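Researcher: Last one for today. Full complex below.
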Amino acid sequence: MTMPSARSKGSLPLQINQGSATHRSLQGLGLAVLVGLAFMGSMTNSFQVGLLTQALIYASAIAGLNLVTGYTGMLSIGHSAFFGIGAYTTGILVSEHNWNPLLTFIVSFLICFVFGLIVGLPALRIRGINLALVTLALAVAFPELIDRFPGLTGGTLGLNVNLTQLLPPHWTGIGIQNRFEYYYWIAAVVLALVLVLCSNLTRGRTGLAMRATRDRETAATAVGINLAWIKVYTFGISAAITGVAGSAFAMYLGSLSADSSFTLILSITLITGLVIGGVATVVGPIVGGLAVIYIPHWTEGLRQGQTEGLFFGTILIILMFVMPDGLMGLLKRMSRFVVQIKPRAPEGPSAASEELLVGSDLNANPDSEGKGDTTLALS
Amino acid sequence: MQVFLEYLFAGISNGAIYAALALAIVMVFRGTGTINFAQGEMALFTTYIAWGLTTKNVPVVLCLLVATAAGFVLGAVTERVFIRPIERKSLLATLIVLLGLFLALNSLDGILWGNQNYTMPSLFPNSVSSFVSVGGARLYWANLGLWIVVAVLVGAMFQLFNHTRLGLHMRATASNRESAALSGIPVGRILMLGWGFSAAVGAIAGILFTPLSPDALGLGEMFPILIQASAAALFGGLDSPGGAVAAGLLMGIVEALLSGYVPAIGGQLQEAIAFVAIVLVLLVRPQGLFGSKEVERV
Amino acid sequence: MSLLEITDLRGGYGPSMVLHGISLTVNEGEIVVVLGANGAGKTTTMRAIAGLISRKGAISLDGLSIIGMNPDKVVGAGISLVPQGRGTFAKLSVEDNLLVGAAKRRDRAGIKEDLERWYEVFPRLAERKKQPAGTLSGGEQQMLAIARALMNRPRLLLCDEPSLGLAPIVVREVFSLLTRINAEQTMAMLIVEQNAELALEIASRAYLLEVGNVVSEGTAASLRNSDAVRRAYLGY
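Model: Here's the assembly. Have a good evening.
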């Protein structure tokens, strides 16, 4: 273990070696703060707990979207459908087949993984705008399909899960009147698992391949990464994560209606959250989830009919212009003036080449001239 | 026969608006290389403007003209203000901005005109008795008028593309933007005009189509049409105006006949069918029926 | 005063600078050639003159400053660039390609006259005028690109690597056509060329670029005899 090697003691930015004791303890501190915040959140009143729960669920869904859109650069407007598939999987298994709700999360993960693979399949042949169009059509088709099979999904009437099937188990010690606290913790644990999974995925070779796909496909092909595979796989895992978020949503809400909860608007909301929080960052989705739930809540006073949509639409446009890497991107840049984490000496070729690619974001387009190159940024 | 003709007439009317919007999509795509997700919402916005004017007792023809001009300005301003500065960053950023525009425009409609649906007055006689009988089937003037105006509009656009100096410059810009600039074409202005014309075409289509059924003007009217039109544009080839128009028309007719004769897959499942069509076209023939191979690289 | 005067031209792509203060001149009716290795900044110089990239310094054509102009305004001022790779409008017909070249002109009669003139000079384009330009051979596309630039009636023609990817015999043809046009129209030309020997044959003066700087300049004959140019570009 090396000691922090400050260039000159006391002057900013502090330089800290990656993996050093100081770095580890800083990370530990951050984690402790998060856990502390999570406990504080659970102790607010039940209305606040409800809002927070939704924010955490959306954060998980956005984290899933982040894999496809943030890290891999494929715009998905279809994640509302994956969220919905997850939610309906849980809803149907619990209400029709008396499953334990928590077990359905695994089924949701698997089913959405398969659906994600299927939707990702066209990515083998098409890219950019066409892929975005496929996902757009999926988002539009999903509520229609749900309404079309009322026997399974409840159709336009919706699907209601009996409350008794969603109550906290005895060992939690949470009573029926505090059941939202239980959902809150489920959402928090799901989010924690999702973030761990995402941060592991995006760090290793897979993450390198994702970024390479986004930034320059030709370059990625040159280093021998199987792009076809990585695109389809990313779509699958991303859909699976968003699907599990949908499961948590089904538990929290207890009643599902495709026409109100799982439309294109949800997809746009998730994209908005992603852009606000910051694409291709691990913590960005949390910020995004909080933002898309709390901003409409705080502006409720101003709200008349459609103000929320106008607000989010406008914010989406403005952010792309002035802050395309979102709040976390901004924080990252600002924090560099205070603390710099020095990466470990590269151990393998992947670590070295990853460094080259990390700095890029949505605007990662080295060539601002030709149209042909511009389109590469979206694969 | 009579039933078949009635399905056919409905199909041609739907097809005409798909064709017009598909043409609008292709015009933007050829210039900018993106699908304008907000294309339908622009058309809806201008249709609301026209409807708003009719409530002030302005003649429908005048409303049409004003709304078309408004559409032109809306399209041109969108290109200049929102698209041009962002498109050089990345396609992803451009698409996200267009999604934002989609959401903002739709919500703005809701704020300005409310959630309820309205009936748009027609440019043509539109009472229950204003039809001609064709083979026993009723062909309403409003339908016929829509066909004629869309046909003229499409014809005028093709004339513009293929037989005018401006059209030549638009085609050159679509083919190779840098070369166009090096030949002295003001590329920015050409793109702006392309977006303007595209939104104007959408505006006219929306104003003619909406009166065909009562209470059709609502916040959700244009989006399904945009999906169908996008599918048509893909089907015909995103860079082929002729292909887009043909595919749009074909799609309207097939859809009407299907939902008429095979109720199980028609009706409510229209967007799902469009989705399947889009995926199939993209998998089997990514450049569409009439498009050129180059589109695939995008 | 020279026709084209460039003083201390700096520019590049985004934050990376390629040109570090280039100065050069082209006189009325003169052919000037710019030599240099790959990455010396030849193409960037051309693109900077044409207004395709952001640039600083001074560029003037016949006393008129064109430094802040967009590409289409530069064309209007009387400079046409035949870009590297020819920039063909592949789906447009040969004739449409030529008509696009006249984008800045309004004189219908003059445009028609010029069409006929260039069809005469480039007879193979006349044979293929209705054909999509993408179907032309490399040499034909190069001729088309030159003819397209000429349709603007430029006072100065910029040619970026006109020999690129062409068979030696076609390269000869292109260069002899350039010489002919220069003589007949007294049109000034600034040519970037890898094939130094050929370029120095038709040029009256030459500049040698290295990493974004002019390292040598003079008459074509004097550069031909300079050791640096001979060793690096002529191979003897």
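Residues 49-291+343-377 of chain A form a domain with the ABC transporter involved in vitamin B12 uptake, BtuC fold (CATH 1.10.3470). Chain A touches chain B through 60 residues (CB under 8 Å).
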